[in-house]
Write a structure and sequence with these properties.
By secondary structure, the chain is an alpha+beta fold. The chain has three helices and two strands. The chain has a domain of about 45 residues.
Length: about 70
Amino acid sequence: MIIKKTKFSFPTTIFFGPGVRHDVAENLLKEKLSRPLIVTDRGIVGLPFFSHFSKSLGSEKLKVATFSEISGN
């Protein structure tokens, strides 16, 4: 059996590096996105960093929803 090499391309910008989580709200608003959905598991929702992160997104301009009814790995 021969496995072919494959390339995936997505029209998505990915930010990474120290402190980029502090720029999420600004980047959402730049893209005219106002209702972000965070999809995660219950374990992550219970960690202190998640509370800080979700609060940093909350504003009158962003209506954040969280879905955590999935099983973690």
